[in-house]
Write a structure and sequence with these properties.
Layout: H1 2-6, H2 12-23, E1 30-32, E2 40-41, E3 47-57, H3 69-86, E4 90-100, H4 106-122, E5 126-134, E6 140-150, E7 165-169, H5 174-183, H6 192-197, H7 200-211, H8 217-225, E8 231-235, H9 239-250, E9 253-257, H10 265-274, H11 278-284, E10 290-295, H12 297-310, E11 314-321, E12 327-331, E13 334-337
Parallel strand pairs: 4-5, 9-12
Antiparallel strand pairs: 1-2, 3-6, 4-6, 7-10, 7-11, 8-10, 9-11, 12-13
Length: 347
């Protein structure tokens, strides 16, 4: 009976009532959530409010033949949490709008919300509203997230100064490698030795890094609250593109030392398996949702010491240069312009 109900045709208002009953809750500062024409939030004059929104389209941002609806919901939330993390803010309230095609049934939607709320619970984020519509062209999700910073202080892209050091959190290229594994897009047949090197645990690690990424909210708050970073951006499109965004906003150039890029053993093993450079995966890969930030040289010792104490992985990968320098990469003593290999819509 429950299975028949879950797979029965979707009725908009019944679905909304069901989702509200499952996921709506009261949280501090929320005057009114789901149930009215707009949510109401009580604000503090001492806080800055941060708003971000993302549109995710089936066939562009995800493929339901490769990932589960639960993963789609989880990743959609994390993409927005990562934007808030890059501002050094705390994610608080989330709204989601769905356009649902006839190929998607209620069980799929509940699974999507399960992933979404699983991510929200990690950061104590409240679902406070949204909208639903029919779709004739695939599943669409639009998420709006509200976050706050106290003390009227935040991280921005425009604060980098010449001489600042460039850092990234975590490791790079994992999500792209995980996606390629899901798509089974190997370019060459690996030898028996290479098959042995690329273990099942490597595959599980990379696939999970794609399907269930982690937004660096705690790290962003730490950098902002202690005034350690001069600028920041999240790595959603890839290092080569997102570094360019930061440099354009700050009107500076950058030099990246390729041998310092943090690449996981699993990503290196995958690169060997398909016969590509792990550096290429690190430069190109988007949706790692790591933080890219800059810091004054006087803060570097503090950053690295406190990061070790708190268990944060932070790697210094380069230096901010004058704007006329451009964006260059150095390897084996050679310096050359960094090509833009990151994802860009309409390109």
């Amino acid at each position: 009976m429950a299975r028949r109900l879950a797979n029965s045709p979707i009725q908009e208002f019944a679905l909304i009532r069901s989702l509200a009953g499952r996921y709506a809750r009261h949280t501090a500062g929320l005057v009114r959530g789901i149930g009215d024409d707009a949510a109401v939030i009580e604000t503090s004059a001492q806080a800055w409010w941060h708003l971000t929104t993302d549109l995710l389209a089936e066939g562009i941002h995800f493929d339901l033949k490769l990932v589960t609806p639960e993963s789609v919901g989880y990743r959609a939330a994390m993409a927005n949490f990562s934007d808030i993390a890059a501002m050094g803010a705390v994610p608080r309230y989330l709204l989601i709008s769905l356009a649902i095609p006839s190929t998607v049934n209620r069980s799929h939607i509940y699974e999507l919300y399960h992933g979404l709320m699983k991510a929200c619970r990690l950061y104590d984020v409240a679902l406070i509203g949204g909208d639903t519509s029919a779709s004739k062209a695939g599943l669409f999700l639009s998420i709006t997230l509200v976050g706050t910073t106290s003390g009227r202080r935040a991280l921005f892209r425009h604060g980098a100064k010449v001489g600042d050091h460039i850092y990234v959190s975590g490791t790079l290229g994992d999500s792209l490698a995980g996606l390629k594994l899901l798509m089974n897009s190997t370019t060459s047949q690996p030898s028996r030795k290479r098959k042995i090197e690329f273990s099942r645990s490597h595959r599980q690690f990379l696939v999970r890094r794609h399907s269930h990424p982690t937004a660096r909210v705690s790290e962003g708050r730490w950098l902002n609250d202690r005034r350690l970073a001069s600028s920041a951006i999240d790595l959603s499109d890839g290092l080569s593109g997102d570094l360019r965004h930061l440099c354009e906003e700050s009107r500076v150039g950058a030099e990246v030392e390729l041998d310092k890029l943090p690449i996981s053993p699993a990503c290196r093993a995958y690169a060997r398996t398909i016969g590509v450079s792990p550096i290429q995966l690190a430069l190109t890969g988007g949706e790692d949702y790591e933080l890219l930030f800059t810091a004054s040289p006087r803060n570097c010792e503090t950053i690295e010491r406190q990061a070790r104490t708190q268990g944060y992985r932070m790697t210094r990968i380069g230096t901010i240069q004058p704007e006329r320098f451009g964006i260059q990469m150095t390897s084996d003593g050679r310096t050359q312009p960094m090509p833009v290999t990151s994802y860009e819509h309409f390109r």
